[in-house]
Amino acid sequence: MQSDDAQYLKRKVKPGNIDVHPTEKALVVHYEVEAAILGEKGDAMHEERKESQKIIRLRSLNASTDVASLARKVVEECKLIHPSKLAEVEHLIFYLQNRKKPSIEKEEKKLVKPRELTPFEGMEIDEEANINKIDDYVELLYEDVPEKIRGSTLILHLARNPDNLEELLHNETALGALARVLREDWKHSVELATTIVYIFFCFSSFSQFHGLITHYKIGALCMNIVEHELKRYDLWQDELQKKSKAYILDNLRREHEKAYKKYQSLLVKQEQLLRVALYLLLNLAEDTRTELKMRNKNIVHLLVKTLDRDNEELLVLVISFLKKLSIFLENKNDMAEMDIVEKLACLVPCDHEDVMNVTLRLLLNLSFDTGLRTKMVQVGLLPKITALLGNETHKQIVMCILYHISMDDRAKSMFAYTECIPQLMKMLFEHREEKIDSELISFCINLAANKRNAQIICEGNGLKMLMKRALKFKDPLLMKMIRNVSQHDGPLKQLFLDYVGDLAAQISPEEDEEFVIECLGTLANLTIPDLDWELLLREYNLVPYLKDRLKPGSAEDDLILEVVIMIGTVSMDDSCAAMLAKSGIIPALIELLNAQQEDDEFVCQIIYVFYQMVFHQATRDVIIKDTQAPAYLIDLMHDKNTEIRKVCDNTLDIIAEYDEEWGRKIQSEKFRWHNSQWLEMVESRQMDDSEPYLYGDDPDALERPDLFYSTGHYFIIDGSICAFFYCNYINSSWITEKVVLSQYLESNGSNGRPATAYGFRPDEPFYQGHGASS
């Protein structure tokens, strides 16, 4: 609100950038207007800024125009352009002079580029359209249907030229008449509806005209048209099927052919209308708010239903539309409810390259959903897509889809029954560049996590070639794939005996840390009885390296963790464990345990090292007598982490068996824990006001001798526990713990190793991140 002491308005114009008009032969001058209301003393009381633009149309510009003279004239007549910008204006005019006219269908900003909409039956006329006769064409829209078709067709010829759109935009009479005719007569004539929708489609190719289409509600009308035509198609199908049966029974072959030709003629016209209407909707869907309105009107249902058609040009458009919609969760869910994967499976493979390309891209978007990935496998898409790996046009998209499918444990094993793995191995070996494509190596890493796939990978010289390339290029991702292969029990581990020396040679401070992590992880997986770990550690002098890396902060946590896991593996060897104990690794592990006590992964793997070492006499004595490791283990007996509790309990069981003093401490702690749990349970049970007595309303109920169980001499008269009960409790607890140890070893393999965050379970997804997306 303007105050009483305001005196006058101050206005200031600031010139801005100069651009060329996107479609016309014109310059666009941007400028900013600053307005301020000043008070009596000249101070600004209210200020506003507004950005504007001025369009300078160069109607006389053609190939023979003198650009320099025209530029000087523009600068002289337009006060918004400073004389210092003469050279810039001249350059822009020269650009306009040589610019080719833009094509609606080839505009770069379009998300998809289905083939250009070609003229259809009813568009060809002898008369040449003239923009100056637009009023005459509009008058034809008030006549009968044939004249309306003729008038709209003439206007369409004008609209197909982008230079005429601006002038048509200002002719509200023409646009209003077109919208009215479409709204009233679209059911009466497919040709008329197609022609008028095509006119508005020409406007929809440019974002600045979308407001016009929204104003006349053409988008909503197109939705109604598409829905109606799809219902008509269903009726035609039913009618044709009934007639076919009748003609076959009556042996009227000629009548059947006549009915089928009529159906085909209707189908061609209908698909022309569907194509132009859906193309218009696709253009409008650039605005997510408009797209939401389409979803609310069930656009996904209509598009998926259209996938039953055979028209390849229409399919390209429909699938491209679905691909755009699929990036939103709600639309993806709608597609899943419509069984879209089953419909797309019928299009793979396809002879039409454009249909094949957009179908695979849509499948890639859908493959981010676990349920839809499973559906792809169920409908038999896996072997179909795998067969396309050899097609250079589709290889990258296919690789990404298969990579997503390989993330699911159940799907991994399915690849063993296709020709996928041999093709991937061939790609790996023929790859000439040092760095392998991220999609390819990520896919291979996932597949190697399955035992059967790993066996196929190692067939022939597979493992040898992988090791050779990984060691040559020091590729951590390829070594990660090899690491996944090495985790599988059975003959696969034996294949690595020839490469333990090569792997051990890579473990040094000079090598890349990521590569060392994978080499350590591969060696740690080799729980092979025939492997002489002591000789390997001495030959490659690995003990100092392992000990140095146990110091907190000496390296990244991932590397330190792999060192701990490696120590746990080599500690299975008696002489190797003794050598590590003499080197002072056990105190280093305890120090690391203190530093990483909040990290369950570190705690679990360090305790596992102790578990391995207490099996051997030499290291057992060091752990029990020279360190405080048992005390740490007692503290961790009741950790919240289940894996930690299991490994800790089993380690303490072995310590208690060989050392009486620690055995009594461990038994006492177990009894104390169980007793405290019982007391907490009893104390936490509060009596409700409605039940003042725990055993009912009778206060004398506990006085009945027949309700008491025999104590078996476990309690003395004063209520304390006798020694006989204590000893029996401890013995029963000890037996229980030994059973748990046996079950633990059976469930975790012969070495009883706990699973790490990296994963030692064959069907876990190990490497699921790569750069490609859609």
From TrEMBL:
SUPFAM superfamilies registered for this protein in UniProt: ARM repeat
Record Pfam families: KAP (PF05804)
A Gene Ontology term for the protein's cellular component: kinesin II complex
One GO MF term: kinesin binding
GO biological process, one term: cilium organization
PANTHER family: KINESIN-ASSOCIATED PROTEIN 3, KINESIN-ASSOCIATED PROTEINS
Protein name, entry field: Kinesin-associated protein 3
Species for this entry: Electrophorus electricus
